[in-house]
């Protein structure tokens, strides 16, 4: 399974030891492995499907017979979420498992509004082993926060609390050295919801998100539009400064540093996208900043050794940069890197993400050829129109 580094491969240090005493988790890991093999060799497709069915049956039985076993149920659900993400043959399956994981966490753990050492201990009370609990919650947070960006909605849980459960300077299996970046990304998703609410209030409409969920009536009765815009601008400046001043934790692995820097740039890209939506008057100045961060992502991935371990979680920064890339050289580099990831790992969610970008690049190129056409197509327009539930984890 995926890991950004050998030293802290939690799949080996957490999942496999658990699976030695948990047949349901073992079957989930077998399902994940055989499913991945089936992407490389069609001869494994039938056995992979059988293993997936067994894993689902085991999960149902575990949830019904041992709902209090948070550690096992959460581990199984996260493995299946990851498996369905890379298979991408049932686009909603990975999200349904993520929702299931959120339900397991919220029903059995104490999540406070503020995070501190005391609340951290409360979060881990439902887990037999604190180290295992920390990693499972961070694992969920990674998927939850990236889901919120990809689906243009709020996270399922206050996952920024879980990101802060890291254990010192050791790189995480998923997000490496970028734990603080994930924390800031969560806060940008909150800003995004505020901007979306403001837009709907201003237009006097409600509507649905990418999942078809009612976004509700966002009428502001007490606060003026101008004061909310001022708040958005202030939050933007604060988050931008934090990202710009962030220092990557030291590491002897340059690839981990490059991965973290790529996540910093993708967080800035997401922030600029959100603010461009809420403060269109800033579009001209934001376009310059966006171009700089696209170039930064391209530069950093260009320095990363091909098929190094940290490359396994590059999809998120690659997609965010690709969604804003306008220079042909940047598009070519991003396309080449994603094609190489598809060739080396076979993950279908990378194929889906690249197909969205290819359509985006084609449509915007066509629009450039029409002098009377203003504006550009956004990747969100495409995923909404095509009903794609992007998994960027």
Automatic annotation (TrEMBL):
One annotated Gene Ontology cellular component of this protein: nucleus
Chief place of localization: nucleus
Keywords: Nucleus
Transmembrane intervals: none
GO biological process, one term: positive regulation of transcription by RNA polymerase II
Protein location: Nucleus
Gene Ontology MF annotations: DNA-binding transcription factor activity; transcription cis-regulatory region binding
PANTHER family, sorted: TRANSCRIPTIONAL ACTIVATOR PROTEIN UGA3
Record-given protein name: Uncharacterized protein
